[in-house]
Amino acid sequence: MADAANPTDQAQHLLARQAAMVAQLPAEKQAHFLHLLDLLLDCYTTEATRALVLTTSGVGEKETVSLLAINADEQETDELIDTLCVFRKLDFQDDAPVLN
Known about the structure:
Layout: H1 7-23, H2 27-45, E1 51-57, E2 64-70, H3 74-93
Antiparallel strand pairs: 1-2
């Protein structure tokens, strides 16, 4: 049984549970999730790599929005948001999408 006080045991338990959940996804979603996981892990292991994760949950008045910055302080987070806004504006102005 995993020792709840041991972070390595906690991580192994979490990863095993998540691996079982990922295995139930269709192949395309599995590939997408694993790509996302690889990109996020890079943020934790490479100083110059940052990310923003935007999630929504619920609908209508019960909808909540969360923004999680990874490896970014407040200024870097603001810069990432500004960059996203610039790309989004360019995406609307151009026939060929800028964002992928």
